[in-house]
Amino acid sequence: MSIKIIITGGTFGKEYNELTGQLFFKDTHLPEMLKLGRCTVDVSIETLLMIDSLEMNNEHRELICKKCNEAEEQQIIITHGTDTMPETASYLFEKIRNKTVVLTGAMIPYKFGSSDGLFNLGSALSFVQTLSNGVYVAMNGKYFYANKVRKNKKTGLFESI
Amino acid sequence: MSIKIIITGGTFGKEYNELTGQLFFKDTHLPEMLKLGRCTVDVSIETLLMIDSLEMNNEHRELICKKCNEAEEQQIIITHGTDTMPETASYLFEKIRNKTVVLTGAMIPYKFGSSDGLFNLGSALSFVQTLSNGVYVAMNGKYFYANKVRKNKKTGLFESI
Amino acid sequence: MSIKIIITGGTFGKEYNELTGQLFFKDTHLPEMLKLGRCTVDVSIETLLMIDSLEMNNEHRELICKKCNEAEEQQIIITHGTDTMPETASYLFEKIRNKTVVLTGAMIPYKFGSSDGLFNLGSALSFVQTLSNGVYVAMNGKYFYANKVRKNKKTGLFESI
Amino acid sequence: MSIKIIITGGTFGKEYNELTGQLFFKDTHLPEMLKLGRCTVDVSIETLLMIDSLEMNNEHRELICKKCNEAEEQQIIITHGTDTMPETASYLFEKIRNKTVVLTGAMIPYKFGSSDGLFNLGSALSFVQTLSNGVYVAMNGKYFYANKVRKNKKTGLFESI
What is d(CA A156, CA C143) in angstroms, rounded to the nearest whole number? Predict the structure, then answer.
């Protein structure tokens, strides 16, 4: 039994361009992070998008949805920017059946040394193996149902609604 | 609903003493790690032991067992050195009922910058919230049943038996 | 004999705002960096500016110049963004006499875990103690005379001219 | 003009063996550290020894001395464990002429994430380029004359005597 990980971008994968002083997307750091976690779970990683979640529109979401439904895997993790993670979760919630889908992300880029990304990845990988079919957000050590979660813009923390 | 975290030592909490060049146990880094993970799960942390797991004997295990059974919490995480983690899990397996207990640890001290500890903590916290009553080991992104796991001494990875 | 360190901003001191996803200036990290380096050199730190070096104009430079000339200390380090570090060095070169002034900076923010900042700070602190009176840039493990240095925009490295 | 760097071991180069839980010497991290510092100084690195400085005896010191005297380079850095760094410096002091030799080291292994090593390397590289002929210790942001320095065992800091 394998787990599919779909990369869509977000803070998770940002790096610092030392020539321009800007943050940018390079490759995903997922393989490096899984190695650091000594992860032996069988995963297949697909880089689908590399965008800020503020740029995520319903066309992108439809693409993600299609990938989830077409995947052979029963268990799917989606890395996603945190700003619109609840919106994407809601979108998928109504259109994916018979799979466990967990969205996760990070507040701090993995490359910045003190990131929450590794914690969230460990959490998402564990929830996706144990939660029943449905769409969830895994942040802050908790799981949230797709249509019952929001990001508190002031604290940056996810809350049940 | 709160989760109890019982600290027993192990690599997780080791630091480097720059005057002696030796590794030693200082305080637990759990609060710092949970903060880094932006964890909002309600936890209560108890430092019960601070020993290498090679020093762990059945008296220690009985003490851990007692703490688990007496705890008000239904969900318990135990941080533990990896060398004898399966032994302690087996010991607890036969003596704890009606609780979900997850043992976890780290191969590299958290303070050494490239530790698997944060990944494992995120994983253990998620498994303990979703697995049914029983005793488990959470390592390498997987969960293992207490009496069906061993550490491969050559690779350092945990395997089902 | 004390060394004065004048902070003007630059990449050195940038942090990541996890709520906005933007880089920003918080406090200087110099005290933390000196502590990490177990530095026992007597220094006095003054935060004069907190700006990108692209915003640095001659009014700012005049302010820096005034601070250098008024300082009791004979040896002065200036942390500065790398983009216009040579321009500021040239400006000071003509106006400061009887002091050793060393400008330094970083290509990667100190807080991002894999910064050149700590290396450059150790370098600047050592050069300022041993170079004769004059104005210098300390980058890439080398020192450069103030009016004979440029930053190569393609490589990000400093070169003699 | 090139600088020779002679590696002899010490805390600088220690790593953590996750299977045994012991610290050990692997390869030197000097090339990686110089890259992190964006160092463009021309250096040639030679790994001469890989020992704790407590194991350093006069035969080792004679070997180091021979390497220094035979080197084509005028400027030489020696990485060395801190415990007997003053002894080795004294030994070399009487036997090396017409060269600038700087010994440096670290209190915390480079691989442990919060090391003083990068700071000390930047410092030693700068001192070796600017100090006149002689043998020196570069630690704590300062340089010390070879026969006038000791390590304070209580604080871990280097002091003039």
Answer: 43
Q: Residue C16: closest CA among chain A residues belongs to which residue?
A: A108
**CB contact at 8 A, C76 and C97:** no
| Type of residue numbered A107 | M
Residue among A113, A153, A154 minimizing CB distance to C112: A113
Contact A38 B107 (CB under 8 A): yes
pTM of model > 0.95? no
Q: Is A114 within 8 Å of C113 when comparing Cβ atoms?
A: yes
Please judge whether C112 and A111 are an interchain contact, meaning their C-beta atoms are less than 8 angstroms apart.
Answer: yes
Nearest CA in chain D to B82: D19
Instruction: Identify whether the C-beta of residue C103 lies closer than 8 Å to the C-beta of residue C85.
Output: yes
Q: CA C100 to CA B129: how far, in whole Å?
A: 61
C85-93 and C58-70 helices cross at what angle (nearest 10)? 50
Order the strands of the C3-9 sheet from edge to edge: C43-51, C3-9, C75-79, C100-104, C134-139, C142-145
How far apart (Å, rounded) are the C-alpha atoms in residues B56 and D111?
A: 29
Is ipTM beyond 0.95?
A: yes
Amino acid at B121: L
Residue B119 has its nearest CB partner, among A114, A118, A139, at: A118
C143 in contact with D, Cβ within 8 Å? yes
Q: Which residues pair with D104 in a beta bridge?
A: D79
Would you say D14 and D56 are in contact if contact means Cβ atoms under 8 Å apart?
Answer: no
CA distances from B26 to A100, B15, C89 (A): 40, 7, 46
Nearest to C56 by CA among C100, C25, C91, C23: C91
Alpha-carbon torsion (C61, C65, C71, C77), positive or negative:
positive
B33 touches A at CB < 8 Å: yes
Query: Which tens digits make up the pLDDT trace of A95-127?
Result: 998 999 999 999 999 888 778 999 999 999 999
Q: Which residues are bridge partners to C44 per DSSP? A: C4
Kindly give, in sequence order, each residue whose CB lies less than 8 Å from that of residue B42, ignoring residues fewer than 6 positions away.
B1, B2, B3
Q: For the beta carbon of residue C91, count every other beta carbon within 10 angstroms.
A: 21
CB pairs under 8 A between C and D: 115
CA neighbours within 13 Å on the CB side: how many for B24? 9
Concatenated DSSP letters of B9-66: ESGGGEEEETTTTEEEE-S--HHHHHHHTT--S-EEEEEEEEE-GGG--HHHHHHHHH
Q: Do C107 and D139 touch (CB under 8 A)?
A: no
Q: Which residue in chain C has the smallest CA separation from A107? A: C18
Which residues in chain D touch residue B112, judged by CB atoms under 8 angstroms apart? 16, 111-113
Which residues from chain B sit within 8 angstroms of residue D157, using beta carbons?
Answer: none
**Cβ separation C107–A52 shorter than 8 A:** no
Q: Give Cα separations from B120 to A21, B116, D2, D46 (angstroms).
A: 33, 6, 46, 39
Residues C16-46: tens digit of each pLDDT? 899 988 889 988 899 999 999 999 999 999 9
Subunits with 3+ C-beta pairs closer than 8 A to C = A, D
Contacts of A142 (CB under 8 A, 6+ apart): A158, B40, B41, B129
Task: Give chain C's mean pLDDT.
Answer: 95
Q: Mean pLDDT across the stretch B62-69? A: 98
Which residues of chain B from 45 to 104 reach within 8 Å of chain A, CB to CB? none
The CA distances from residue D153 to C135, D82, D156, in Å, are 38, 10, 5
Closest-CA distance, A149 to chain B, in angstroms, reads 14
